[in-house]
Structure formats: C-alpha cells, structure tokens
Automatic annotation (TrEMBL):
The lineage of its organism: Eukaryota, Viridiplantae, Streptophyta, Embryophyta, Tracheophyta. Gene3D superfamilies: Homeodomain-like. It comes from Lithospermum erythrorhizon (Purple gromwell). Residues 159-176 have a biased composition (Low complexity). This is ZF-HD dimerization-type domain-containing protein. It holds the Pfam family ZF-HD_dimer. InterPro entries: Homeodomain-like_sf (IPR009057), Homeodomain_ZF_HD (IPR006455), ZF_HD_homeobox_Cys/His_dimer (IPR006456). Its main location: nucleus. The keyword Secreted does not apply.
Length: 176
C-alpha cells in the first residue's frame, strides 16, 4: 500500500460497546499485522480488529494526507495523528478573543429610526435609485451606515407602536 512505510498504527479505538450505547475499547496497544489471514494482513493479530480501527501516526519523509477537508504536506515532521490536527485547529479557532462591537443608539436616533421605518413600512427594498438616495440621506443624517439601520429595522419590526394591518378572522367579526 502506498504511504505505509511512514505510518504506524497504535492503539485500537474500536468501540465494542456501541450497540449497548456505551463506550469500551479492547485495550490493544498497537496494531500487529496478522499474516495468517487471507485479507493481506489488514487485521490485528492481538485484537482481531481491522487496521482502520487503530490510531494512525505518520512519521517524517514527505507524505501527502487528506484529513478533515484540508490538505497537509508534512516534511520531516514529528509523528502526529489526525485527532491532534483537529485539536490544534479548534484551539486556533477558539483563540480569536475578539468580542463583537455592539452599536449603541441615542434616544434621538431611535426615535428617528422608528419614524423612518414606519414610513418605509418596515421594509428596505433592494437598491432602487429614488428610495436608495432617501435611505442613504437618512442614514448619513443620523450618523449610521445603511447596514446598521437595516439590522436595527429587522430587529425592531415586531415591536413597532403601530400594529400591522391584519385581516382578522371570522369569529372576531361576528362578535361585534
């Protein structure tokens, strides 16, 4: 098999209690090739599991592997497994300690946005020249971007002071 010269197969990770809804491994510490089977030695002589159940460790030399959607090229690197790559990638992802900036609106801005949103019917149409100029002027006038106003409008459309026109149901019409 291609690339087997640089791979070692360590402990068996097969869950023998999966059908019971639990987790139990057999304790096999390292894959030992079983030459007596007809499948080309892909089962472990110690535990009988297929080689794929054993944790693979890749050593030095140049090898190309595919793990979790990323292509990695390793040259003369220390041994590592796919699980370690995953943990390293997740730690890099979680280290972005940047907190999202929350926009603070003044009372005056809120009043103006509420009035303008009611005038627009709580909907921003796609970029239309006449309406776009009006929205852009309004946003520039109160010191906000169009995107911030759009998000604010989306978040507050259900808490508007004027109820939206609803057709009503038959039972409400007959009880008057």
């Amino acid at each position: 098999m291609e690339g087997d010269n640089n791979n070692l197969y360590r402990e068996c990770l097969r869950n023998h209690a999966a059908s019971l809804g639990s987790y139990a491994t057999d304790g096999c510490g390292e894959f030992t090739q079983d030459d007596t089977t007809s499948d080309g030695g892909l089962h472990c002589a110690a535990c009988g599991c297929h080689r794929n159940f054993h944790r693979r460790v890749t050593y030095g030399a140049t090898s190309y592997t595919f793990r979790g959607g990323d292509h990695h090229m390793m040259e003369d690197s220390p041994p590592h497994s796919g699980r370690e790559d995953y943990n390293m990638n997740m730690s890099n992802y979680n280290n972005s300690n940047k907190k999202r900036y929350r926009t603070k609106f003044t009372g005056e801005q809120k009043e103006k946005m509420m009035g303008f949103a009611e005038k627009l019917g709580w909907k921003l149409q796609r970029k239309d020249n006449a309406e776009e100029d009006e929205v852009e002027r309004f946003c520039k006038g109160i010191g906000l971007s169009r995107k911030v106003f759009k998000v604010w409008m989306h978040n507050h459309k259900n808490s508007s002071s004027t109820p939206s026109p609803s057709p009503g149901n038959a039972s409400s019409l007959t009880q008057q």
